[in-house]
């Protein structure tokens, strides 16, 4: 059975829901190679008291450990929210084949800040974007 972007984005959103449950900004990510999830992560900035503990950063580290190498060639990252500038910098160096995100982040996302991905990385946004957006809205409404 061929698993598609929607399937893997749903897995990233499940990670975002875990973040929501522990009062972290609900962003989740998975890294996939050959139709297999090799890393799952969500935001941990509050729990770890670490501003760099974004879902993407956690997923990069986990996937690199799994592959026993620093480059993620042949991999796709699925993340529920458009990566920020910091995360896109790390994603650039990890040399992923693809980066697929859900909801856009017009304030802090890499697109609005003019950051370019690695030339070999293909980018696709908008996969299950409404699901991701609604989760973020619920989280911030609860905070107000």
Folded structure, characterized:
- This protein has 144 residues and is an alpha/beta fold.
- Helices cover 41% and strands 20% of the residues.
- It is built from 5 helices and 5 strands.
- It has a 5-stranded mixed sheet.
- Helix 1 runs parallel beside helix 5.
- The termini are far apart.
Question: Helices, strands, pairings?
Answer:
Elements: H1 5-21, E1 28-33, E2 36-42, H2 45-48, H3 55-67, E3 75-81, H4 85-94, E4 98-103, E5 122-124, H5 129-143
Parallel strand pairs: 3-4, 4-5
Antiparallel strand pairs: 1-2, 1-3
Q: Major sheet: order of its strands?
A: 2-1-3-4-5
| Low-pLDDT segments | none
Roughly what is the average pLDDT, rounded to an integer? 96
Counted beta strands: 5
What separation lies between the terminal Cα atoms?
43 Å
List keywords for this structure.
single chain, 144 residues, alpha/beta, 5-stranded mixed sheet, 20% strand
Short note summarizing the structure:
This protein is of the alpha/beta class and 144 residues long.
């Amino acid at each position: 059975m061929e698993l598609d972007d929607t399937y893997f984005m749903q897995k990233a959103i499940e990670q975002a829901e875990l973040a929501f449950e522990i009062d972290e900004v609900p962003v989740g990510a998975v890294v996939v190679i050959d139709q297999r999830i090799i890393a799952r992560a969500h935001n941990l900035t509050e729990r770890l008291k670490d501003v760099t503990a974004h879902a993407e950063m956690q997923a990069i580290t986990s996937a690199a450990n799994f592959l026993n190498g620093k480059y993620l060639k042949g991999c796709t990252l699925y993340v529920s929210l458009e990566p920020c500038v910091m995360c896109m910098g790390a994603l650039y160096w990890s040399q992923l084949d693809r980066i697929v995100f859900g909801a856009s982040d017009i304030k802090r996302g890499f697109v609005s800040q003019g950051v370019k991905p690695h030339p070999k990385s293909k980018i696709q946004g908008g996969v299950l974007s409404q699901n991701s957006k609604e989760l973020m809205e619920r989280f911030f409404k609860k905070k107000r």
